[in-house]
Amino acid sequence: MAQIGTFTRSDDGSFTGTIRTLNINTKATIRPVAKEGERSPDYRVAANGVELGAGWGKQAKDTGAEYVSVKLDDPSFTAPVYATLVAGEKGEHRLIWSR
């Protein structure tokens, strides 16, 4: 698993930070949104004013730790990118890419 982003959580529950890959280097926000249905996302991901993805709040079964399951997509991607936003050791949140 590779870290593709670093974020800081705000008091309002949103996250601000940067997503970096070989092809992307952009500031991004992950903001909570009102759920419109059972399967609708808990978060929207945006970069440069453009929606880049969505996130769902989850809880690890074995540890109970909370995290955000993120799906990023863009016409420039060959396929969606799935990642997990997890709390780091020093208060930062890491966006971890997985396949």
List keywords for this structure.
mainly beta, 0% helix
List the helices and strands and how they pair.
Blueprint (H helix, E strand, L loop, with lengths): L1 E8 L5 E6 L4 E8 L10 E5 L2 E10 L6 E7 L8 E7 L4 E7 L1
Antiparallel strand pairs: 1-2, 1-8, 2-3, 3-4, 4-5, 5-6, 6-7, 7-8
How does this model look, in words?
The protein is an all-beta fold and 99 residues long. The chain has one domain. It is built from no helices and 8 strands. It has an 8-stranded antiparallel barrel. The model has no long low-confidence stretch (mean pLDDT 93).
The amount of beta strand, in percent, is over 45%
Query: Largest beta sheet, briefly?
Result: 8 strands, antiparallel, barrel
Can you count the beta strands? 8
Name the helicity range.
under 10%
Low-confidence parts lasting 5 or more residues at pLDDT below 50? Answer: none
Number of domains: 1
Strand order of the largest sheet: 1-2-3-4-5-6-7-8
Global mean pLDDT: 93
SSE sequence, one letter per element: EEEEEEEE
Looking at the structure, what is the overall shape?
globular
Rg: 13 Å
Number of helices: 0
Briefly summarize what is shown.
The protein is an all-beta fold.
